Amino acid sequence: MMAQTGTDSEQLSGALRRETVKKHVGAIHISGKLSLLQRKLSNVLLLNAYDTLQTSASHSIDAKTLAMIVGYNSNDMDTLRASLKSLAETVAEWDMLDEDGKQEWGVSALLSYAKLKGGVCEYAYSPVLAQKLHDPKIYALINVNIQRNFSSGHGLALYENCYRFVRTGSTGWWSLETFRKLMGVEGSSYYESFKHLNAKIIKPAVAEVCKTSDISIVPEFRKKGRAISDIRFKIAENPQLAMFNIDDSDGLRASKVYEALLAQGVSDRLARQWIAEHGDEYIAEKLSYVANRKAKSSLGYLTAAIRDDYKLAQRPKAPPPSDRAIAAGAARKQADQAQARAEDARHADRRERVRKFAIVAELVAARNPTQRGADRALFSSQLSDDLSRDDFARNSWGSALNARAIFEFWEGMVPGCFDAD
């Protein structure tokens, strides 16, 4: 249901700075049919709401910021509305043991409601689902930074279903029927064939998990007679992507400045955000500044002092802004930062595509005419629709429409050809 690097996360605010979201294992099994963007949206909504899941009836987040974090165009509210509607229409189902060891089965919509008003997305979970999602005893940690690297819903779904078993090293055996349900392809006659399931779902999803995430997985199969009947995944940590697991929350909470902020009524997550963004010394200076002034709202005054860098040697020219003004300013700043990150990411993606297309041109040039013809025929046969085939026929290996497929094809032909070195 409901994961770039630490640099991106440092620019997010509030709960969204947290790198991981606790996700109830029952919830991980309920959203196989969600698209990739819907799955990412569901994760970010849960991350945003997690601290107050059981104390607040509803939750809210700036809509443009939400869209950009998930990967939508910040002005594409139609897509955001459609995805929220899909979450409200998707049924969550869990089947698990309760605290007394009794079997418990239940269903609930993923979202009980969602609305967009005044640039804010407001949403809620049903009370029973909120309790399941918040249960600290039975959860998996899903890294929200990692999820943004996935480009397929099946890859992200497989990652979520495997990650919670990383400490045991194996998922245990799943029947193919269960696996199809987890991947959201149950009921498809095409994927009743193991050949198709393996070629189109298992192999691509396994490759993406190993390349994109902090774990590596290997599928194993079990037969009943001559047919494959069950599947499991052997799981190990991926040391090359261990950086994604860094979480400095405990270190920040050990700070004396953190304790002083809590004493001023600052929330846990906001205190950690301020310390992470500005450092202990800066925050301590602002605490001293506020302590030497008399203000009706010390928290609002402290927020303004941190944001505008009030100095002990000067008094602010204007009274501290209202809480509403502070919230509006924070939302604008958050949206601007997210938009800048999205623009940087788009520029980086363009540069990377240009680099890879140049490498493809070199690889093609090194082939003899017979090999080139065979390469084109093989690649064209792998394209699934007429539009893609026509664009490749017109533009050959420079087809922008087929860029991702072209890069995957040549990576398979010449492993490591796109490595930065």
Write a structural description.
It contains 19 helices and ten strands. The protein is globular, with a radius of gyration of 25 Å. A hairpin with a 2-residue loop joins strand 9 and strand 10 (227-237). It folds into four domains: 1-148, Arc Repressor Mutant, subunit A, CATH 1.10.10.10; 153-246, Winged helix-like DNA-binding domain superfamily/Winged helix DNA-binding domain (Arc Repressor Mutant, subunit A), CATH 1.10.10.10; 249-321, no CATH class; 337-413, no CATH class. The two termini are 36 Å apart. The strands form four sheets. A three-stranded antiparallel sheet has the order 2-6-5. It is of the alpha+beta class.
Short recap of the structure:
This protein has helices at residues 6-10, 25-28, 36-49, 63-70, 77-89, 127-134, 144-147, 153-163, 176-183, 194-212, 249-253, 256-263, 268-278, 280-291, 298-308, 323-365, 369-382, 386-395, 403-413, and strands at 20-24, 59-62, 91-97, 103-109, 113-117, 120-124, 139-143, 174-175, 215-224, 227-237. It has 421 residues and is α+β, with helices and mostly antiparallel strands.
